[in-house]
Amino acid sequence: MRNLLKGILVLLFIVFAGCNLSENKPLIVSSIPVWKHVAEYIGGRDFRYYSVLKGGESPHGYEIKPSDVLKLKEAKLVIIHGLGLDDWILKGIEDKGKVFNIGELMARKYPEIKKPGYHIWTNPVMMEEVYFEVARKLSEFYPSKEKYYEKRADDYAAMIQQLLQRTDNCLKGVKIKKVIAYHPVWEPLFETIGVECIGYITDNPEKEPGPERIRKLIDRAKAEGIKLVITEKGEGEILAKKVASEIGANVLVLNPLPDDDYVVALSRWCNKICKALKEAYGK
Question: What is the homologous superfamily of the domain 27-164 according to CATH?
Fold first, then answer.
């Protein structure tokens, strides 16, 4: 009986010690899931991770909750997109020194991302560099792991390049690569993989496009023989289907803000776009 009690006490000690060790790890909070997954791939078990948005939600106009504020107070690092996309998160942060603004950082090197509506995570080439920037930031917490974090970033960049090569091979057999999209969230990805978007239903998903804009887009789409409209779930999907019906096009619904590992999400986007183009225009 004594040995049994000792065993139970030892087991409880290990469990509680493990819990305490986990709680003592620095907490990284992100505004959207993509930054959580970037940090998690680089930092592994060295940190804890929390994303305010959970995936499938719109980052536009989000109202921060008391539970989010508590996490932000506890956080040692807060990763945000910036560029006006997730300014709402700043309301819950007293110490702005712990904010890691991806958009602000990348805009110093790439002025083109300063334009309204630029979504960095849909630019896979730029995301390769983001992984290295996050690796450098996390190494401030654990300087001895700097080389390890850089190696993780290098491995991930190689995976992105391999995926882009597969996408390029898939699209080589597609003669026409023209689409309409609901709004410019996909513009960086289109440019990267060689898809031409002839127009967007709206420039801002928070604003309803006027009838004149829709009419002009439909007329141009008919003139150019557009057979694919790309959108996402929600109000955009309803309007996109109306436009597609007018021009006799297929509709592809993508989730621009998934809660997945980035390469998994990127692979899904590229595969679906390639397949939809083949179905719409033929090989």
Answer: Nitrogenase molybdenum iron protein domain (3.40.50.1980)
